[in-house]
Structure to design on (621 residues):
């Protein structure tokens, strides 16, 4: 049993407030031969500078940046060490300091967290968080093997060589312990492919039925292909700044709090521990669940790193009841099961009742707190180093009321060589004030939870 | 004075994968890593002899004194070196959870499909991942350890599990 002490549970505190003002994405694709990675980053950077209604010219904004945090998951994929230097040079930001960030699938979140630390500490007034991945450099099976080296290479990698094989055991265990049906899992896939359908950035848009998801080929039992995220070539970026600069740059600045948690690389090494409670959870809530024989928390059912990140981030942001106070969330739906597991960690429902978040309708557009209106990782993208930034940018645009500006503009669809669907609809959450996003690595090895709050 | 040089290309031309909107070339890579099992070498040597070795913390000051599988040389609770302990035979465990590997990544060394299983072992604080060589996996099922002693792979695949009849 791991016992945490007071210092371990200290709530992180910014020395000054941090704001997000602009973001940029690209046309996410499985294979993007027409552009090199730094050229794709330029597309996101231009969108961030030119299309976010900033009150200064791109050249003036560039003149404010003195810190670049650069996320990229795997040198294997890029086959280029020190990509950060190439990107900073290519964007014309030399000789500003760039620092490479690597925390697996949570790289994007960690990249924003690091930039926020730069602002909060006073190191920078304006920081660029940028991330990318080029997963098409190898074929899909080799890509799956590369990713599986983010399991333990001595004790796990050889037993599957694909990441779904490290989530599938969680799906089997969770389903038995918490009575989760494969239909509920499939509903997550249906929802996120559908939301991807309304996004010009989406790689895997689609109108599927639950039956079609369940009839799709098996990746690792019980996870089907349509329940798994994309492998993507892509980039994303976000501009962060201090309070004074935020209002100088934007009429719609959004306040940022973000925190992280980490846990063992191998799920099997996760020893039982007390559940750190979210602000809305009463002591004793989990007494019954904890007394059942054979239970261990987080075990194969949950992610302590997500719970800790939420534990800290909600308190930093002053959130008491996440389901009531958040207007939308973006979760790391690498697999349908990991998405569902996360609902308990971040308090959309108490542990053991995660499926209710989907079944109640709360997770849908028009519901209490819709999830992954961007299309998420299943519908839109998983260019690993960029993913957590993409999620944050989608939350930012929702709070700024710019969903339509960035998803409904026919020019954006056309610039990607796509036709805007005739039945396109807006997924703008009316009057969205507060959003959270989860950036998640491994089988829960690193997680950040960021909270964005309207500040205009 | 530097000598006058003449230089020739002696590499292997890259094959072009496609040359449509952009020129895409294949850049082959073949690498062999030198990987040490380090202080866990006794574990991998023991597998080839049909033994499963765990590590156990014996530091009287340690608040936990746990037994570990996968082993680790040093205790994370007190940061002191641990002792090796041989698991008594027959080694019987219980399936905690499992998956069926259908579409593995490149380089898979087991015939597919197969069951990857996570095994609870008595007295061990962790859960041990492995594979089933026969039968149908089920949570709660008892399994017995077997060892690949004849043609060892020198990897974790040298231990496997079978259902207890």
């Amino acid at each position: 049993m791991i016992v945490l002490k007071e210092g371990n549970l200290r709530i992180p505190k910014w020395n000054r407030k941090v704001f997000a003002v602009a973001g940029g994405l690209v046309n996410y694709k499985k294979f993007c031969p027409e552009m090199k990675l730094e050229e794709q980053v330029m597309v996101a950077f231009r969108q961030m500078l030119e299309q976010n209604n900033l009150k200064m010219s791109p050249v003036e904004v560039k003149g404010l940046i003195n810190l670049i945090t650069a996320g990229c998951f795997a040198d294997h994929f890029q086959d280029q060490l020190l990509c950060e230097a190439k990107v900073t040079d290519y964007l014309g930001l030399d000789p500003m300091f760039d620092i490479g960030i690597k925390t697996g699938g949570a790289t994007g979140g960690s990249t924003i967290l690091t930039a926020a630390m730069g602002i909060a500490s006073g190191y920078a007034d304006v920081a660029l968080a940028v991330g990318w991945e080029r997963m098409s450099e190898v074929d899909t099976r080799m890509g799956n093997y590369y990713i599986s080296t983010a399991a333990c290479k001595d004790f796990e990698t050889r037993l599957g060589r694909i990441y779904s094989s490290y989530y599938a055991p969680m799906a089997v265990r969770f389903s038995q312990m918490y009575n989760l049906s494969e239909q509920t899992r499939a509903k997550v896939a249906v929802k996120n492919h559908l939301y991807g359908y309304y996004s010009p950035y989406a790689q895997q848009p689609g109108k599927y039925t639950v039956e079609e998801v369940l009839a799709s080929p098996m990746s690792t039992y019980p996870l089907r292909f349509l329940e798994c995220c994309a492998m993507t070539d892509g980039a994303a970026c976000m501009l962060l700044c201090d309070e004074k600069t935020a209002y100088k740059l934007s009429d719609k600045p959004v306040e940022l709090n973000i925190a992280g948690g980490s846990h063992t690389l191998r799920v099997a090494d996760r020893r039982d521990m007390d559940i750190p409670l979210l602000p809305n959870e009463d002591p004793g809530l989990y007494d019954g669940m904890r007394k059942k024989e054979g239970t261990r928390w987080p075990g194969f059912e949950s992610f302590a790193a997500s719970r800790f990140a939420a534990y800290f981030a909600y308190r930093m942001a002053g959130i008491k009841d996440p389901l009531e106070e958040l207007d939308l969330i973006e979760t790391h739906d690498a697999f349908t099961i990991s998405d569902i597991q996360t609902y308990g960690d971040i308090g959309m429902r108490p542990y053991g009742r995660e499926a209710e978040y989907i079944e109640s309708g709360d997770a849908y557009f028009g519901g209490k707190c819709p999830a992954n209106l961007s299309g998420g990782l299943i519908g839109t993208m998983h260019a690993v180093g960029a993913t957590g930034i993409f999620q944050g940018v989608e939350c930012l645009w929702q709070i700024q009321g710019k969903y339509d500006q960035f998803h409904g503009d026919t020019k954006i669809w056309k610039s990607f060589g796509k036709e805007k669907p005739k039945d396109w609809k807006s997924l703008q959450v009316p009057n969205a004030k507060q959003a959270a996003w989860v950036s998640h690595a491994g089988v829960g090895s690193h997680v950040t939870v960021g909270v964005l709050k309207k500040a205009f | 004075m530097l000598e006058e040089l003449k230089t020739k290309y002696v590499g292997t031309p890259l094959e072009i994968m496609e040359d449509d909107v952009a020129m895409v070339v294949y850049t082959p890579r073949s690498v062999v890593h030198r990987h040490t099992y380090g202080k866990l070498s006794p574990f991998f040597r023991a597998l080839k002899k049909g033994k499963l070795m765990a590590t156990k913390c014996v530091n009287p000051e340690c608040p936990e004194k746990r037994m570990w599988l996968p082993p680790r040389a040093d205790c994370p609770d007190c940061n002191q070196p641990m002792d090796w302990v041989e698991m008594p035979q027959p080694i019987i465990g219980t399936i905690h959870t499992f998956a069926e590997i259908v579409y593995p990544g490149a380089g898979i060394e087991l015939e597919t499909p197969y069951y990857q299983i996570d095994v609870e072992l008595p007295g061990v604080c962790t859960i041990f991942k492995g594979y089933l060589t026969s039968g149908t996996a089920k949570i709660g099922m008892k399994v017995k350890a077997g060892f690949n002693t004849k043609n060892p792979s020198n990897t974790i695949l040298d231990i496997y599990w079978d259902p207890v009849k």
